[in-house]
Design goal:
Residues 23-278 form the EAL domain. Keywords: Phosphoprotein. With 279 residues, the protein is of the alpha/beta class. The protein has helices spanning 6-35, 77-83, 85-106, 120-123, 128-139, 152-157, 159-171, 188-194, 203-207, 219-229, 242-250, 267-276; strands at residues 39-48, 54-64, 70-71, 113-117, 146-151, 175-181, 198-201, 233-236, 255-256. It is built from twelve helices and nine strands. The protein starts with 5 loop residues before the first helix and ends with a helix. It binds ligand C2E and calcium ion (3 copies). The site of one calcium ion (CA) has 5 residues, from strand 6. Ligand C2E is lined by residues 44, 60-61, 72-74, 77, 90, 93, 117, 119, 179-180, 203, 237-240, 258-259, 264.
Length: 279
């Protein structure tokens, strides 16, 4: 409500109040859930489009409330970032994902790449690299099979700082992907300086792929070309139809992830799915 009369002001204040209260409550509940192990990870398989083989999976956080309700990450990651809680949660995610990768290796799913989302608050934390090294040491994961996903918009926030951290991450042997690519405004030269391994085409551009006739106009095509020209691997997220998968492959996209192949799965579902798709 705008300032057209006292009544409106009052309503505005009250709305603001409830919104703040709501956020405080959400944060308290999240902290509580984190302390009581009600956060867990799902894993969404990633596929090599050239041969249909399984490459690995992306770890995605889930929050199950005491009443069994699932809270989607889009509704709590922002507040976790804002409050700084994401640093601890992110460390937990990373370690858990690494341990899962190791147990998959032990179960015979070798060379399984684990992709983990990292937020800017984690990335700029002074102990981030120590934390990474500690996770590698404690879990014994092969760093070449660990990938960090950072969003394009986050990478753009503090370009030089982010470039510096990426270089150090890569020195550890860990690979880096730019997530939600195409939604930010990174320039070609910046992308080159970022020195990442993979571009992940944002779901919105994949969703826009509908028929063979319009592939030349679609942004996905441009992003794939850009990635290929820079010598990067390109992965598409949010692939839901056979047509999208086929056209992405034709456009030169290397890898894909989406409901067409599998939804995000909990750890036992993932193992079952992998067993069914073993080649
Ligand atoms: P994201 O990294 O872009 O992850 C992709 C999202 O697309 C996931 O939503 C996934 O479930 C969803 N998705 C996968 N395939 C399809 C598809 O075919 N169609 C559609 N419509 N959606 C698909 P989710 O799991 O709800 O996660 C939302 C966002 O929350 C993620 O977006 C990521 O930004 C954030 N997030 C999730 N886990 C973590 C985490 O551990 N740490 C941090 N910092 N952020 C996380
Ligand atoms: Ca991601
Ligand atoms: Ca994404
Ligand atoms: Ca996203």
């Amino acid at each position: 409500a705008k300032a057209n009369g006292r009544g409106s002001f009052a309503r505005y204040d009250r709305d603001m109040g409830t919104e703040v209260q709501e956020r405080v409550r959400l944060l308290r509940n999240l902290r509580n859930a984190f302390q009581h192990d009600r956060l867990f990870l799902n894993y969404q398989p990633q596929i090599d489009l050239s041969n249909g083989r399984i490459i690995g999976a992306e770890a995605l956080i889930r929050w199950k409330t005491e009443s069994g309700e699932l809270v989607p990450p889009d509704s709590f990651i922002a507040i976790a970032e804002y409050s700084g809680l994401i640093v601890d949660i992110g460390q937990w995610v990373l370690r858990n994902a690494c341990f899962r990768q190791i147990s998959l290796e032990k179960a015979g799913f070798t060379n399984f790449r684990m992709a983990v989302n990292v937020s800017i608050a984690q990335f700029r934390h002074p102990q981030f690299l120590d934390m990474l090294e500690q996770a590698l040491a404690d879990t014994g994961i092969n760093p070449a099979l660990l990938e960090l996903e950072i969003t394009e918009s986050m990478a753009m926030l503090e370009p030089d700082y982010v470039i510096g951290v990426i270089h150090k991450v890569k020195t550890l042997g860990i690979s880096v992907a730019v997530d939600d690519f195409g939604t930010g405004f990174s320039s070609l030269s910046y992308l080159q300086r970022l020195a990442v391994d993979r571009l992940k085409i944002d779901r919105g551009f994949v969703n826009a792929i509908r028929s063979p006739a319009q592939t030349t106009e679609c942004i996905a095509q441009t992003v794939i070309q850009l990635g290929r020209n820079l010598g990067l691997t390109v992965i598409a997220e949010g692939v839901e139809t056979e047509t999208q998968a086929r056209l992405l492959k034709q456009m030169g996209c290397h890898e894909a992830q989406g409901y067409l192949f599998a939804h995000p799965l909990d750890s036992s579902e993932l193992v079952r799915w992998l067993e069914q798709h073993r080649d």
